[in-house]
C-alpha cells in the first residue's frame, strides 16, 4: 500500500482500487487518508465508483496486526470486490485544519521548553500537556504572542528521515515523554520547522507556518503539581 499522505499532504484526490473489504473495513491499494495516530484524528473521505455511486469514509485506522490502513464505511455500505476501481476524494477542509493545528502544536512545544506528556488535536484546535520544571510559570498572553510571532515568520516546514540509531544519539529531539518513537524501524520521519524545531512525527503538516493563521491560547489547566495543559484554537 502506498501512503500518499506521507509523500504529498496536499493531494486531495486519488484513483485507486480495492485490495480487501470485510466487516472490519476497506483496504485500498493506495490511499490519501491519514489513520488515527499521534493525537491526530483519522481522515474522512468520499469514494466514487465507476457507476457513479459514492460511499463515505467516516474514519481511518491502522490495523495493529497487519499495519494496513483500514477505511471505515457505513454499516450498510455494499461489499466491494478486490480490484474494484474507485476515486478517493479527501475531506480536504477538515484535513487542512488538522495540518494547521498539528504544525501549531509543534510551535507550542518550541515556545514552552518542557517535556510533553500528552497531546491531542481536532479541526478547531488542540492541546499539549507539559511536565514543567520547578518554578516555571505559564502566561497565556505571552504564549499566544510568541506563537503568533512564529506563525508570522512564515517558516518553511519540511520532512526529513533518520535512523533509529541516529535518533537515539540525539535524545533532545524526542519531546514526548509518554510515547517513544519506533526506534526499531530502518527510517524514522522527522518534521523540521526551519531554524526552530526538529522532532519525530508521522502526522500531516502545512508547508509554511504562515498557513496556520492567527492562533488563540484558550486556557491553561492544572493536571497535577507540575503537569499543565495548554489548549489552543485556530482563530479562523
TrEMBL record:
Where the record annotates domain Alanyl-transfer RNA synthetases family profile, the positions are 1-236
The coenzyme or cofactor needed here is: Zn(2+)
Would you say which domain of life the source belongs to? Bacteria
Q: Which SMART domains match?
A: tRNA_SAD
Keywords attached to this Swiss-Prot or TrEMBL record, sorted alphabetically, are:
Hydrolase, Metal-binding, Zinc
Q: Name one GO molecular function term.
A: nucleic acid binding
Primary location recorded for the protein, binned into one broad class: cytoplasm
Task: Please list the GO biological process terms of this entry.
Answer: alanyl-tRNA aminoacylation
Q: One matching Pfam family, short form? A: tRNA_SAD
Q: Where is the protein found, in the record's own terms?
A: Cytoplasm
Q: Does the keyword Hydrolase apply?
A: yes
- Record's GO cellular component terms: cytoplasm
Protein name as it appears in the record: Ala-tRNA(Pro) hydrolase
Q: Whose protein is this, by species?
A: Vogesella indigofera
